Amino acid sequence: MLRRDLLTLAAAGAVLPWLGASRGAPALVQSALAQSAQRYASMHIFIPGGPGGGWDGLGRAIEQVARQAGMVGNFQFENVGGAGGTVGLPRFVSQRRGREGSIMVSGGVMVGSVLANKSPVGLRDVTPIARMTTEPAVIVVPASSDLKDLPAFLAALKSNPGGTSVAGGSAGGMDHIILGLLLKSQGRSAKEASYVAFAGGGPAQAAILGAQVKAGISGISEFAEQIKAGRMRALATTGETRSLEGVPTLKESGVDIVMGNWRGVFGPPGIKPEAREGLVKFVTDLHALPAWKEMLQRQGWDDAFLSGDDFDAFLKRDEAATAEVLREIGLI
């Protein structure tokens, strides 16, 4: 199998110099990569969140690119949302244990939620496969809001945190942590936050657009369409550099907060080493496709690919860092 894969890619490399900058080169590369890729007759994708959220979006993106490349014959999706993924996680652990061809899409939000909710089941109970993407969060308000900019929002948090309700993902996740850090930056306590947790991006959007809350915090991709349509106003993003035209970062606005929301793929517990290696190869092959690069650009996701044991080591560091932040702002 390995020799065949190398020969396929070598053949593509030998032809590329002849093609030069021709329009056929990208298609040839994609075809060669797809032919050598790990394949599954069917794949079960478990989303421990509701439809329309960031985990669901990544799962659908994996489906779209893998299906087009002929890497998977059939997909089955299962969404079980609630409490930052800690409702669905035990279901995945118990029902998919040892079953090949199954993956769960999750991320940094679950790390915080497991800690905040004192969940007996965590990401240590599944099989790390790969970190795929990361993206900064964005703070938004309804287009009709009287909070016109970030200083106005921060002033509202400082003067009346209990009356400044903010929608986001589940308790203890990145959105909640960002709000806690914002309150701390204004001399208030995270415990004073009026945080309204939602199981998925769809319900959070509805609450913001319906002015049921004052503001919202989530990954840029979850609110991008509403911002572009003018139904939401973006106040700031949480990345190191600007991600949205005309929208400042918290850091450049004088608030020293930089955070990104990573998302990744996990296998069930109890799978054989060769099954894990197969899933690692699957996501590695997927990541190498030009179509995946195009998907990242279209969704506004940053490439954060990290697989296998390196991903496992990252998870341990991330859990320790998240626990430290949650303690610092009083959420655990």
Notes on the structure:
The structure is a single chain. The N terminus is likely disordered. Strands 1, 2, 3, 4, 5, 6, 7, 8, 9 and 10 form a ten-stranded mixed sheet that branches. This protein is of the alpha/beta class and 332 residues long. Helix content is 45%, strand content 21%. Helix 3 links the parallel strand 1 and strand 2.
Provide the residue-averaged pLDDT: 89
**Low-confidence runs:** 1-25
CATH topology annotation of the largest domain: D-Maltodextrin-Binding Protein, domain 2
* Estimated helix fraction: 40-55%
Largest sheet: 10 strands, mixed
Oligomer: single chain
Coarse shape? globular
Key structural traits:
ten-stranded mixed sheet; D-Maltodextrin-Binding Protein, domain 2; alpha/beta; 2 domains; 332 residues; single chain; 21% strand
Summarize the structure.
By secondary structure, this protein is of the alpha/beta class. 45% of the residues lie in helices and 21% in strands. Helix 1 (2-19) packs antiparallel against helix 2 (25-36) and helix 5 (108-116) packs across helix 12.
Task: Give the helices and strands, then pairings.
Blueprint: H1 2-19, H2 25-36, E1 40-47, H3 54-68, E2 72-79, H4 88-95, E3 102-107, H5 108-116, E4 127-142, H6 150-159, E5 166-168, H7 174-185, E6 195-197, H8 201-209, E7 215-219, H9 220-228, E8 232-237, E9 260-267, H10 273-288, H11 290-299, E10 302-307, H12 308-328
Parallel strand pairs: 1-2, 1-3, 5-6, 5-7
Antiparallel strand pairs: 3-9, 4-7, 4-8, 4-9, 4-10
